[in-house]
Amino acid sequence: xxxxxxxxxxxxxxxxxxxxxxxxxxxxxxxxxxxxxxxxxxxxxxxxxxxxxxxxxxxxxxxxxxxxxxxxxxxxxxxxxxxxxxxxxxxxxxxxxxxxxxxxxxxxxxxxxxxxxxxxxxxxxxxxxxxxxxxxxxxxxxxxxxxxxxxxxxxxxxxxxxxxxxxxxxxxxxxxxxxxxxxxxxxxxxxxxxxxxxxxxxxxxxxxxxxxxxxxxxxxxxxxxxxxxxxxxxxxxxxxxxxxxxxxxxxxxxxxxxxxxxxxxxxxxxxxxxxxxxxxxxxxxxxxxxxxxxxxxxxxxxxxxxxxxxxxxxxxxxxxxxxxxxxxxxxxxxxxx
Amino acid sequence: xxxxxxxxxxxxxxxxxxxxxxxxxxxxxxxxxxxxxxxxxxxxxxxxxxxxxxxxxxxxxxxxxxxxxxxxxxxxxxxxxxxxxxxxxxxxxxxxxxxxxxxxxxxxxxxxxxxxxxxxxxxxxxxxxxxxxxxxxxxxxxxxxxxxxxxxxxxxxxxxxxxxxxxxxxxxxxxxxxxxxxxxxxxxxxxxxxxxxxxxxxxxxxxxxxxxxxxxxxxxxxxxxxxxxxxxxxxxxxxxxxxxxxxxxxxxxxxxxxxxxxxxxxxxxxxxxxxxxxxxxxxxxxxxxxxxxxxxxxxxxxxxxxxxxxxxxxxxxxxxxxxxxxxxxxxxxxxxx
Amino acid sequence: xxxxxxxxxxxxxxxxxxxxxxxxxxxxxxxxxxxxxxxxxxxxxxxxxxxxxxxxxxxxxxxxxxxxxxxxxxxxxxxxxxxxxxxxxxxxxxxxxxxxxxxxxxxxxxxxxxxxxxxxxxxxxxxxxxxxxxxxxxxxxxxxxxxxxxxxxxxxxxxxxxxxxxxxxxxxxxxxxxxxxxxxxxxxxxxxxxxxxxxxxxxxxxxxxxxxxxxxxxxxxxxxxxxxxxxxxxxxxxxxxxxxxxxxxxxxxxxxxxxxxxxxxxxxxxxxxxxxxxxxxxxxxxxxxxxxxxxxxxxxxxxxxxxxxxxxxxxxxxxxxxxxxxxxxxxxxxxxx
Amino acid sequence: xxxxxxxxxxxxxxxxxxxxxxxxxxxxxxxxxxxxxxxxxxxxxxxxxxxxxxxxxxxxxxxxxxxxxxxxxxxxxxxxxxxxxxxxxxxxxxxxxxxxxxxxxxxxxxxxxxxxxxxxxxxxxxxxxxxxxxxxxxxxxxxxxxxxxxxxxxxxxxxxxxxxxxxxxxxxxxxxxxxxxxxxxxxxxxxxxxxxxxxxxxxxxxxxxxxxxxxxxxxxxxxxxxxxxxxxxxxxxxxxxxxxxxxxxxxxxxxxxxxxxxxxxxxxxxxxxxxxxxxxxxxxxxxxxxxxxxxxxxxxxxxxxxxxxxxxxxxxxxxxxxxxxxxxxxxxxxxxx
Lengths: 337, 337, 337, 337
Hints:
Oligomer: homotetramer
Structural class of chain A: alpha/beta
Helix content of chain A: 25-40%
Number of strands of chain A: 14
């Protein structure tokens, strides 16, 4: 950590900073420059109260040298992590495709979708049983009934299941049915929920908050991992910007950036990132080209009749076509699908 | 609702849209313009599946005429709502000041702060017992012990208490001690938590998500109100932008904008909105000048020793000085403090 | 255009709106809904003063049905435009790669770079002679001397030249040497400059303003085209968001989105969009996978010695490696390189 | 400047960094921490090529200690600068109000407005003769004819004139008529224009780019000042965010933040910052409460007939009312109006 003193900081103020650092069992190294004094701190800066340093008289700013996370970092583990769900490996050579409707609506809908996406080559079925909706009057999901239908679709097709948990009280329930638990964008900093999924032994798909920096996403993953669950998959799903033509702005930079910051697998959600079905295929291809380990895509046998996200949902035919295109991109980057 | 058809939409596509609207018991009015056809919908558009319309063939876009919320809107209630906490009225003539430390740390700290802010003129004591921290290794609050210390500070000073609830399982516990429950920025779209505080009979201070539009903030309030609890106070606390000099960007426009969109009271948090103690006083004054019903400010007897947010926390002396300045602004806008 | 009246708009206010529309030779169609009146306007809404309508008493909001641009739109021209620079076609089957240093520094530097990027397969040489730098004390470019060196590099290698013009008074000068004139992100709404490059007969590479919506980018292109120059290439180069790990956030959605909004070719600048050399290759590949017609990449024989943008510049070896990878992606999406 | 080496940086890489710093005549101080080596640089870091350092092998990141601007900084001049326009002092005790129409439309319009705003207490008349409009088909201003009408309004009322210059070729022309030259938000990084207004001897009102950080705004001012013109007034006019209810988001934090970063006066434009006439008055009051030295407000005798920005323009009556309210706020913060 580097403490930059104000230009006119008094000797006493500098001494207080040095003392405060020493009290925290770290070694301060004052550097008297031409314009101001800078104090470098030797030791593990993560133990320091950065806010308190900033609040001291004579301090202009404090700059962090180390990242505040540990378990998620490349420094903790150099090799890419592979998250396993049965036979499926997320973070390996194969591109993993998760597909299915925004919400589970009925047995026929989910089974038809599962069969179609399985046939097209998807390995994991997505579908919401508990839906976080912006307004209280929108369809909130089928709840446990939806989970049961997902399980039935798994029985029929052999696909694994990923589904969202929104309530800390439902973690055990969802874990009973799901193969992967999804934490949605709105809950990326719902710390009780992160801690709770950190205690189960199933993989977690952690979506980036639409306002969150890479660092904050990694700290959210750190919350889960620090509870013991090391099976975390990161998901870039678009951030909020000033552009309104699309629902969100996919931050494609996040894919290679996260890959250099962490050992965790990274997947991309082109459906929410665009909010427009016409953009889903090109963005899914871009994600794989950029190095994503997988994609998660909204598919419905009859998108016009979907109860939510209809305008960003592919039909099963459109999805099958995309899978063929994705396969070519996967091969072009030396992977398979 | 207005459905804009594509320029080259086929008659059959237009007919399908008309039919779909009629099936939802609403009246479509097609308008054939020079370049394209537009379909206006007469009736309460809130019942329509907007996504499904958008997904229909030949549809270019769908524009909403009405807002998707009801209870929070001026249309539901023209007169400003007053939220009462004992003798204190939020949303009336008086500017309400909530002040106290970021986190409750010890009995001495909270009681000393309470006495000081009470003396300076604050009506409500703030202080976190459950702290949502970006990283898992930071101080997470004293929990129920912190709530008890807040209650003790209330007993000693007569101040009312506002404190955050972060876990849906803690709502009853926090409600037992607090006079106002705070929903923090990260939880603005934590729907189970919103529903749960919607069922209690204590006021809720709802902070704007740092990514949330006014409309989404109002929909979050609608979640609470639709469960029965009508005592909601909105809080602008800064949004996330590209500027990094400050911790967040206070959206001062939100104060008069929300006042024209809703009947609910609006307060401002200049501490989190700036993240810098030197900016807190001018921004608090701006908030009152813009029409805010109150401010919530971080104060600590010894900011340098605060365990969190030290760099944005006023000392009790600085706070007392600010209160005198705020009083002048309050009077300049025809209110009192 | 759709005028939404306030819920309690008076008959007289509605009548004034109708009259005002008729005065502008358009046909108003009032629709009296259950909650409020909406007035649809039949005719070319682009002639209307939207601000004046918004300012009328009783008007709540005005929603545009048509886009405010014409020449750039798919409605003006359905087929993709091909911009030709000698034998090179931008917007055709072939992916076009523009490569070279941020700034022209010396004859040796630019000729060495030109030879290397030519050998690796680039068709166009980039290099700045006039540099827009954030601070006045940074290197501002070699000026005309730089243009001459670019021309010399063209003579030696046969590569075409793209270079930025920042001053309206330099348009003729730059056009004398360059094959394509670049308008940089900071000048996307420098209207005198747009108009001036609209009068020349050389293609213009128009970079998206880092704050600009797709619509604003298209309106900037419309400025150029409305002066007579129809040879415009759009360039997505990253927008400004809250993420600070990268220099900008590449809006990959822009590629397919612009492709459905306009007939103009779209290229991507992964160097500025990321600001980090380690991210350039994956993002370049993503761009091609998403449907971009080309990429523009910073390359320097010795990046560490580059006078600007050193940290986002590829070495010639890294560039040659990327070209091989890009070729595979191009083929995977049915194009060539 | 602080160079943070990668965790596994080789000794040779560290030595190269040290050597490179020494070659630039600065003194490197290597600090070998527990996890990585950090190199502090003693001396004026502004001469260093930061990009080149970042590009060196083994370097993880480079952090700046000093700001890259000089003339605008508090370090260059501690006391607040006062910009004088005849008798008017911007940056002194008095709050300065600039008011007038978005665009000069006719002699009657501008003279009527001038008289009305003068009567209400404004000291400076605003009005656009050259208008930067997002689309090429919108009214672009009366040009020199508009400047002459502004001059006539000055003759009639004694008000000073502020008007925008958008073309580097018009600087002399505009300077012939105007008392203050305005650089609009879109041109904040139009460096040729900044340099040109840096060479005249009239004050410049520099509006913040809607995408620009405080640092970038200050660097734009530095461009002007480094050419010799020290009479710069900064203007916060709203930044671009995700909120769409308002035209822009006024960054009220900018007022006190800029005041602590620079000695230059700071004014606020509530008209563009909100885009809604109903929000102009509360935001103008907030600006003064936050410490702004003045405000610039759009006023028109008949807003509905204004050719541009009608929906954010106050009538002369509304403006007169606001002036009375502003006076009370000015007094509440110890200033006058």
